[in-house]
């Protein structure tokens, strides 16, 4: 089965940086990954997409609220594991949320596989 694990969350002051990582594991996972993405959910709000990357061609997407500050990257991929990162710079208090990574399969209906989330807190 596919498993996703996030790491790198924490507490940072406004204007600071954090780097989140996501490891997605599963047999032959890189052969059926269509896209991977980062989502976030702030307290009392709905989950929203932050950034995504088409796995084989590298095309990226960013929410307007993070474009120019965040950078998503595909770090590595092999038959057993995909690794992805989200570099977050110039963080703002409104970036405070639980961040989730997710995976969409080729031919799948949206993002089917999710990590457990990692907390990012930005203090003012």
Task: Describe the structure in your own words.
By secondary structure, the chain is mostly beta strands. 3% of the residues lie in helices and 56% in strands. The chain contains 1 helix and 11 strands. It has one helix at residues 29-32, and strands spanning 3-7, 10-13, 18-25, 33-41, 48-54, 60-62, 70-77, 81-88, 97-105, 113-114, 118-123. The strands form 2 sheets. Strands 2, 4, 5, 6, 9, 10 and 11 form a 7-stranded mixed β-sheet that branches. The longest helix is centred in the N-terminal third of the chain and has 4 residues, at 29-32.
| Mean pLDDT over the residues | 96
Q: Please, how many helices?
A: 1
H/E order of the elements?
EEEHEEEEEEEE
Largest beta-sheet details: 7 strands, mixed
Alpha-carbon distance between the two ends: 40 Å
Strands, total number: 11
- Poorly predicted runs: none
Q: How big a fraction of the residues is strand?
A: over 45%
The secondary structure category is mainly beta
Q: What share of the residues lie within helices?
A: under 10%
> What is the overall shape?
elongated
C-alpha-based Rg, rounded: 14 Å
SSE blueprint and pairings:
Blueprint: E1 3-7, E2 10-13, E3 18-25, H1 29-32, E4 33-41, E5 48-54, E6 60-62, E7 70-77, E8 81-88, E9 97-105, E10 113-114, E11 118-123
Parallel strand pairs: 2-11
Antiparallel strand pairs: 1-3, 3-8, 4-5, 4-9, 5-6, 7-8, 9-10, 9-11
Quick summary:
The protein has one helix at residues 29-32; strands at residues 3-7, 10-13, 18-25, 33-41, 48-54, 60-62, 70-77, 81-88, 97-105, 113-114, 118-123.
What are the salient characteristics of this protein?
124 residues, four-stranded antiparallel β-sheet
